[in-house]
């Protein structure tokens, strides 16, 4: 039995393991793209966007990394070092437009770019600046936006190999960004890059406790007063706020994704509005001589909490409808459906880079 185990181990080591190629030597991860679903030729190379990627420029990866060195473990997949064969430009794809099963963007940007045929100024090795065609001289790659991406507007110098020099920082990067705002090319504004930088954010919550807490208060008759009603509404809004992110674990249609984002805004505002209402009710209870509450008190608190949440949700909704596609207003929109179905938590700008 031990002999068979030994022979099997030798078989795995000599046959199976060499077939799984490691990272591509001499190739940075940011120069690679996922080629698992692309056509493999008889000579072992892969055909990616009419570019033949030789076998020695392919390898298996079980992680992804970003410009800010954020690493994430993913399912092992085959990648090709295509950016050593032709310069690459990475353009962002909103979360709501990303087709996860096929790893492609469905926003129609490439069709729009084909109509206007945009050009970029590229600096050559000798220092001269020439106009290059974005679609013909570069491989245009799409990169899905992530949760809490950082945005920055930077003057840049673009080189022929796809690397850039950020003028304000006087720093040279192989890539210098994770992806570029998708609308700046169609708007014709290419003097500066409105770029996104992927960033990691952990969000921990005590979600499992909240349903039990609500059930407890619903079954306690002593808490079926104004204070108890306000507290139950606060817990309901809190539960809904923490529940909706769990829906993103599975596939979700982009229209439901956007609806989920605005619903989250509504409930987080309602959560804090009910907290204010609850605090006001407690303050009145401690300071008022007449502790008898008006029969309309709960209606007034409800109008304040749910109504203010509706108004403050409508404001970013209107702003998104007007400025969502304007790269110069990237700091003003909520980014719902961009990084994911959520809203952007923190502000962005040059200081965030």
Report on this structure.
The structure is a single chain. By secondary structure, this protein is α+β, with helices and mostly antiparallel strands. Strands 15-14-13-17-16 form a five-stranded antiparallel sheet, with no helix packed on it. A three-stranded antiparallel sheet has the order 1-6-5, with no helix packed on it. A three-stranded antiparallel sheet has the order 2-3-4, with no helix packed on it. The chain folds into three domains: 1-86, Methuselah Ectodomain, Chain: A, domain 1, CATH 2.30.160; 87-202, Beta Complex (Methuselah ectodomain, domain 2); 209-352, no CATH class. The chain contains seven helices and 17 strands.
Keywords:
353 residues; alpha+beta; Methuselah Ectodomain, Chain: A, domain 1; Methuselah ectodomain, domain 2; 3 domains; 3-stranded antiparallel beta sheet; 7 helices; elongated; disordered N terminus; disordered C terminus
């Amino acid at each position: 039995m031990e002999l068979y185990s030994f022979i099997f181990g030798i078989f795995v080591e000599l046959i199976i393991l060499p077939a799984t190629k490691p990272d591509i030597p001499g190739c940075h991860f940011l120069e690679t793209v996922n080629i698992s679903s692309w056509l493999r030729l008889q000579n072992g190379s892969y055909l990616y966007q009419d570019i033949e990627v030789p076998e020695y420029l392919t390898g298996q990866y079980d992680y992804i990394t970003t410009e800010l060195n954020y690493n994430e473990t993913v399912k092992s997949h085959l990648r090709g070092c295509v950016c050593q064969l032709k310069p690459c430009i990475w353009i962002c794809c909103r979360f709501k437009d990303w087709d996860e099963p096929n790893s492609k963007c469905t926003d129609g940007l490439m069709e729009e770019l084909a109509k206007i045929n945009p050009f970029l100024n590229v600096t050559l090795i000798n220092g001269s600046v020439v106009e290059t065609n974005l679609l013909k001289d570069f491989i245009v790659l799409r990169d899905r936006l992530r949760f809490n991406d950082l945005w920055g507007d930077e003057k840049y110098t673009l080189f022929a190999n796809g690397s850039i020099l950020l003028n304000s920082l006087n720093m040279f990067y192989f890539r210098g960004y994770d992806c570029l705002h998708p609308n700046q090319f169609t708007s014709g504004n290419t003097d500066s890059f409105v770029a996104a930088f992927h960033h990691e954010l952990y969000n921990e919550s005590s979600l499992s406790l909240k349903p039990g807490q609500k059930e407890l208060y619903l079954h306690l008759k002593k808490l079926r007063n104004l204070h108890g009603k306000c507290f139950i509404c606060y817990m309901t809004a809190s539960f809904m706020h923490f529940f909706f992110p769990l829906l993103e674990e599975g596939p979700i249609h982009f229209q439901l994704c956007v609806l989920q984002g605005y619903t989250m805004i509504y409930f987080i505002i309602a959560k804090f509005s009910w907290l204010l209402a609850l605090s006001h009710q407690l303050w009145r209870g401690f300071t008022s001589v007449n502790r008898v509450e008006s029969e309309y008190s709960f209606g007034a608190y409800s109008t304040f909490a749910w109504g203010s949440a509706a108004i403050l949700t409508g404001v970013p909704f209107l702003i998104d409808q007007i400025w969502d596609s304007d790269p110069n207003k990237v700091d003003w929109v909520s980014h719902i459906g961009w990084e994911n179905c959520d809203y952007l938590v923190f502000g962005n700008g040059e200081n965030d880079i």
